[in-house]
Amino acid sequence: MSNLRKFLSFASAISIVSQACYAQITTSIQPGNVLNIGYGFNASKPATGMQSFKTQWRFLTLGPSPSGTRFLATQFWLDPIDHSGGGDTLYIGINPPNQAINYAGQVHFSYFGTHGSTLYNQNCHAGADGGGGITCALDSVKALPGQTYRFEAKITKATATATTLEGNVEVFDASGNMIDSQQIGKFDVLRTNMELTYPGSWVEGTADPCSSLKRTMVEYSPFWRNGNIITADAVNLNSISGKCPFTYSVYTFPDLTQSVRIEYGN
């Protein structure tokens, strides 16, 4: 049985934690986000040294116009291997639908920095959120309740002058069957001796009040690095924060992996 099928088949098995949380803290990602979510990195499994990673979530409840919510994404850094600092930010994720503007959803893989170079896909363009960088996007991947979205970011090539980065998405139906697999985009960054570091997930917020948030529930699976789901890092419950009230439930499966269902909105 695949790991995704285990997540889905046991998702109703054991509820360990279910409690209302009212965030008193923010994180270094975005203090105005609806949610910030970290993973269980520690000294033996630091949040550095990655050439690739996969992150995954499933929409359990998603309205056609989730007011006040924009991207659901995993943000991370392209950092020098020698940890000298000065890294660049990237994120990968999906923008849920907004019925009011006839927008069905879109997946993104974006780079924020001044070192962007060759673009390998027609759906990639220069610029990110109105600033410097690169944005790759696919309109063909819709955000739908019941479906699971697995995102992969990886370094595919490193030369004496550039690092090639690639973002991919796989979509699974409610039974765990893969129904779509696409490359979101690939591009070069003119930096060398780099690695992927410090990932964290978030649900982006807007200036809309918490009362305007539509009821949404998302199940976050463990994060796994370098393609190794066996040593996956579960969501760090102490890291979950946000500007609006939310609740969460934790599920532990026979292989001791966990997923976390987080619900917010009205």
From TrEMBL:
So which residues are the signal peptide here?
1-23
Report the superkingdom from the record: Bacteria
Report keywords, A-Z: Signal
Q: Does the keyword Signal apply?
A: yes
Q: What is this protein called?
A: Uncharacterized protein
Say which species the protein is native to: Ralstonia solanacearum
